[in-house]
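Researcher: Sequence recovery benchmark, item below. Answer with residues only.
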């Protein structure tokens, strides 16, 4: 089996192009990880990595033995399609969940994304809370959501409500809201721990003045979630620039929407 034929690699190439088309993929901004399916992990189960194991500053026994396709540090999204083997790698978590080895990729001597802590800690949480369904994490520099983080209070309930009010689809697509974090140092263990904590409740996390993380079962759905939130943010910025809201979807109408589409919206955002 040729690893470059994995559907996950195709998906990643396609979505990284979409991200660049959106203008979110400047330079080496953003990173993506996918927990591989049993079928995609199979070729690595018996393999021993030639590389030394890299220790993690935490233990995630929930992910012991799992393999992940992860974008490399410093990789430009716009180059992934042309150079997949250099830009991407497959890493396998050890049996204790406190280290990983590279099984394939990073062929020019690279290593996984600088945001590896946020990705792995979030995967551990989402595997548990979604009963294994969520396998993808995308981090990207969504222009409009970043801009909003300068003008709205950095509060989960406030930003969730503002986005829900912009389009009917928002509450349907992310009833669990958008978890909002203060600015933190990118790539740090602290940003990873704080992100994974919020991932217990939300599939979208806003990193103030930096970008967003989204999670879900596949690339398409995660990209769709992020694109919808960023479109709502874009509209809110336009509305603000045009003098502010004169009317909006009301709390009562949001409740009607939730009932009609049988979703359970984040309570604090709909008071
Ligand atoms: O450089 O986006 O957050 C990749 C990043 C770090
Ligand atoms: Zn980033």
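Model:
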């Amino acid at each position: 089996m040729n690893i470059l034929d994995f559907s996950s690699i195709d998906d990643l190439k396609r979505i990284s192009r979409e991200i660049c088309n959106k203008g979110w993929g400047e330079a080496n901004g953003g990173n993506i990880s996918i927990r591989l399916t049993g079928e995609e992990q199979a070729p690595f189960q018996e393999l021993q990595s030639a590389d030394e194991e890299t220790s993690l500053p935490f233990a995630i026994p929930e992910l012991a033995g799992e393999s992940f396709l992860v974008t490399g540090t410093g990789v430009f999204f716009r180059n992934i399609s042309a150079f997949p083997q250099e830009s991407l790698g497959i890493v396998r978590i050890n049996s204790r969940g406190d280290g990983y080895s590279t099984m394939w990729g990073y062929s020019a001597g690279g290593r996984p994304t600088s945001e590896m802590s946020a990705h792995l800690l979030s995967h551990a949480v989402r595997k548990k809370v979604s009963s294994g369904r969520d396998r993808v994490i995308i981090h990207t520099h969504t222009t409009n959501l970043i801009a909003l983080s300068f003008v709205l209070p950095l509060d989960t309930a406030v930003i969730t409500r503002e986005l829900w009010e912009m389009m009917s689809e928002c509450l349907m697509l992310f009833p669990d809201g958008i978890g909002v974090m203060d600015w933190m140092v990118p790539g740090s263990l602290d940003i990873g721990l704080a992100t994974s904590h919020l991932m217990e409740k939300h599939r979208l996390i806003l990193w103030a003045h930096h970008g967003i993380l989204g999670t879900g079962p596949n690339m398409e759905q995660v990209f769709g979630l992020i694109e919808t939130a960023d479109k709502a943010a874009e509209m809110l910025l336009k509305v603000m620039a045009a003098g502010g809201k004169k009317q909006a979807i009301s709390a009562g109408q949001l409740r009607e929407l939730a009932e009609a589409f049988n979703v359970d919206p984040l309570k604090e955002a709909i008071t």
